[in-house]
Write a structure and sequence with these properties.
Elements (H helix, E strand, L loop, with lengths): L5 H23 L6 E5 L5 E5 L5 E2 L4 H9 L6 E3 L7 H6 L19 H7 L3 E5 L14 E5 L4 H14 L3 H22 L7 E5 L5 E3 L4 H8 L3 E2 L8 E3 L2 H7 L3 E4 L7 H5 L8 H4 L3 E3 L14 H12 L8 H13 L5 H8 L3
Parallel strand pairs: 3-4, 3-5, 5-6, 7-9, 7-11, 11-12
Antiparallel strand pairs: 1-2, 8-10
Length: 344
Amino acid sequence: MKKLLPGVLVVACLCTIFIFMSLRQQAYSPLSTDTRIIKDMAGSEVVLPAEVNRVVSAMYPIATQLMFLVQAQKLLVGISDMDINGVMERIYPPIAHIYRPGRTDGGDITKEEIIKMRPDLVFTHTHNALVNDYSDVGIASVCLRLENPDELIAGIELVGEIVDRQQRAAQIASYYREKLDYIRKRTSHITERKKVYFAGPAMLSTAGGDFYQNYVIEYAGGINVASQGRGGWCSVSLEHLLDWNPDFIFIGNYGTARVTDFTDDPRLSEIKAVKNSDVFMARYYIGSWDVPTPESLLGIMWLANKLYPDEVNFDMALEMREFYTTCYGYRPTEQEIMQVLEGP
């Protein structure tokens, strides 16, 4: 065999290197036609397939609701047990048959379960994003952070971008901003704002300034008496309540506290909210209206009505009908609406 000329060897080596680098670039370049890059709500850049067709929201049930808002619920292949209730089954009967992955004794979902669902992406939360990174098996993890109503709107827009429902997401985001802007304009002139105490898991457990309920109060035009607290739910005493003397008391319906715990306690009889019978349970339909879900918009509107009836005059029966029709494509019955609005 004749020896290859040195020049030929150089050309062959260069061609090999060129081919290798081209293949490597095609595999990893963000400009590849079959992938794209988005920035999630933790600030991380995430490589996604150009078209997302299979989504798991089991690690963060609120993401399930956002998928409904952008009309992408048919892409869900893995959800949480928390996503299933009678209302959701009426809104979307197929939800009962979407796979719900098993969990370990610690409440985690194993990587094997994730792989079994063959998702294009998994939605996570800032609290569990680090332990739910599946990039090593080719599955994207997108972190959502929905700690106030503006972030909720941003989350809707991000989910719309991810699943190619940008126009729908923009429509819903505009609807949200319109309602919030109305409240802001109607209450912006108020100098003496109503003081609010929000009871969460228990009568003497309240939302600090870094919790979603704090923002529900503030966006409704009120002042959270416990806004200086941090770390989510804060334990307080009866002395705190007496000192704060809130104008209104609202109670999460997922805890143990009830209206009578406040109204029937003689030690609290001089608190303004108790004297004026302004103690209410939060409203509830798909879920509670005070937590970081799409329904929190209704919670803000309902709360603003309670705080400032002379300035804010939402017809909540009409608003409920419009909200669920607009956001979920579902029209609640008159009986359902009354059951929600006429509670204690």
